[in-house]
Design goal:
The structure holds two protein chains of two kinds. In chain A, 22% of the residues lie in helices and 33% in strands. By secondary structure, chain A is α/β, with parallel strands linked by helices. In chain A, strands 2-1-3-4-14-13-12-9 form an eight-stranded mixed beta sheet, with helices on both faces. A four-stranded mixed beta sheet of chain A has the order 6-5-7-11, covered by helices on one side. In chain A, strands 8-10 form a two-stranded antiparallel sheet. Chain A is globular, with a radius of gyration of 15 Å. The model of chain A has no long low-confidence stretch (mean pLDDT 95). Chain B has helices at residues 32-42, 56-72, 86-95, 104-108, 111-120, 153-163, 184-191, 207-215, 226-229, 235-244, and strands at 5-13, 16-21, 24-30, 47-51, 77-80, 99-102, 125-134, 137-142, 147-152, 167-172, 198-201, 221-224. Chain B has an eight-stranded parallel beta barrel, surrounded by eight helices. The chains are: A alpha/beta, B alpha/beta.
């Protein structure tokens, strides 16, 4: 069973369908009660970092998410959901994140087209179950203006080139984060969701 | 490297896909969901749906189409036509659209761009610009190309970016329907000025036009309707052609 956290700031329909069309049971929760029995947790999101953190806090979701991770159960952060895993972000002023992966979320360096929007190749820096069976360099769909900078190299799962390399996926034990949108990335995207659901 | 995108565009009215040249001889061309599935299968990078009648009673039907399409395909798609308020945007995004495209409403009320961007993020807001060459420069047209404004198209593109547009969809009305190729000069002027992605539209007749819009015009994506709808070329053919000429393209899977 996959549990998707709906913060109410973005459309979670596609990611829901991405799991359900592949035969996985999915449910959507908005508050902490739904997280108690959750097996695999998905934190999706498009939108602004401070707003998302505010919602997580107001709804009392931060503690249950951290407990979920501590218990060793899998979590997948998608796009903004990946960025929320970090220590902080500079989007609309410095805001503290969930602090699960040490590092910072910053704006793309100058001279690159922002938003980084479209299909781009994902190159795996280390073997990770999340990319199992997905070809090296497969294209995924990205839409974002900020990038995560993990402090520890060991947390980097993949990199992508947009006028220089940036981190496109992270992983730390049972926690995974992808900057791209697997639910909008056709076959490789569905494959990644399947990998996560099978954990 | 970021791939250049190929985007088939579907004109919709009363929940059906229609074909027609310059709004003449419009005829029914089938179910939007079927078309979306076909283009998704062929490896289109994104889709654009334009509601060409965009009346209020049409709106509900459009929302139903957006819902069905989003259930079926796993590539991003944009919906445009008749969007006037942030509430209109909310309805379409909630139904499953990834981006909304605004045109006339943005010209009449530029604050709609920033309001939309603030609510849903810049990446959701596509500003569509219909452009015609005039003696005194490139001018913006509104209401489906029916009314001229005095607004300079190049300046307007820059302003739209500053207001928070995530992308520009630039249509040359001079070239639209001619199959003579995209307006490269227009694209160059815009892409050299703005930092956000520009989608080229209007005039595609042969595959080399796609190449020119990207390589010469600096477009991040190319929109085409008739060359794909009438089966003159398929999306895989377009991709193979561009890839053969050294353009970075997503391999269709």
């Amino acid at each position: 069973m996959i549990t998707i956290i709906d913060l109410g700031i973005s459309n979670i329909k596609s990611i829901y369908r991405g799991f359900s069309v592949q035969g996985f049971d999915v449910r959507v929760v908005t508050g902490p009660d739904g997280l108690k029995g959750a097996e695999s947790l998905v934190l999706p999101g498009v939108g602004a970092f401070p707003r998302a953190m505010e919602i997580l806090e107001n709804r009392g979701l931060i503690e249950p998410i951290l407990n979920h991770i501590d218990s060793g159960r899998p979590l997948l952060g998608v796009c903004l959901g990946m960025q929320l895993l970090f220590s902080d972000s500079v989007e609309h002023g410095l805001t503290r994140g969930l602090g699960i992966i040490p590092g910072h979320v910053v704006l793309f360096p100058p001279g690159r087209q922002v938003p980084h929007m479209g299909w781009n190749g994902v190159f795996q820096s280390q073997k990770s179950p999340i990319f199992s069976g997905i070809p090296e360099g497969a294209d995924f769909y990205f839409v974002h203006s900020y990038v995560a900078r993990p402090e520890q190299r060991g947390d980097v799962v993949s990199e992508t080139d947009h006028g220089g390399k940036f981190v496109s996926a992270v992983g730390r034990k049972n926690v995974f984060g992808v900057q791209f949108h697997p639910e909008k990335s056709q076959r490789p995207g569905l494959h990644l969701l399947r990998n996560f659901a099978a954990m | 490297m970021l791939k250049k995108r190929i985007i088939p565009c579907l004109d919709i009215t009363r929940g059906r896909v229609v074909k027609g040249i310059n709004f003449v001889n419009i005829r029914d061309a089938g179910d939007p969901v079927e078309w979306a599935r076909k283009y998704d299968r062929e490896g289109a990078d994104e889709l654009v749906f334009l509601d060409i009648t965009a009346t209020s009673d049409n709106r509900e039907t459009l929302v139903e189409v957006v819902e069905s399409v989003s259930d079926e395909i796993f590539i991003p798609f944009t919906v445009g036509g008749g969007i006037r308020t942030v509430q209109d945007m909310a309805t379409l995004l909630k139904a499953g659209a990834d981006k909304v495209s605004i045109n006339t409403a943005a010209v009449r009320n530029p604050g709609l761009i920033s309001e939309g961007a603030r609510n849903y993020g810049n990446q959701c807001i596509v500003v569509a610009v219909d452009v015609k060459r005039e003696k005194d420069g490139f001018k913006v047209y509104v209401t489906g190309g029916r009314h001229r404004t005095d607004i300079d198209a190049i300046e307007w593109c820059r302003e739209a970016e500053n207001l928070g547009a995530g992308e520009l969809l630039v249509t040359s009305m001079d070239r639209d329907g001619t199959k003579d190729g995209y307006d490269i000069e227009l694209l160059q002027k815009i892409t050299s000025l703005v930092n956000i992605p520009v989608i080229a539209s209007g005039g595609c007749g042969i595959l080399s036009h796609l190449y020119d819009a990207i390589r010469l015009g600096g477009a991040s994506a190319v929109l085409a309707a008739s060359i794909f709808h009438y089966g003159e070329f398929t999306v895989p053919q377009a991709k193979a052609y561009l890839s053969g000429r050294g353009i970075e393209i997503r391999e269709s899977v």
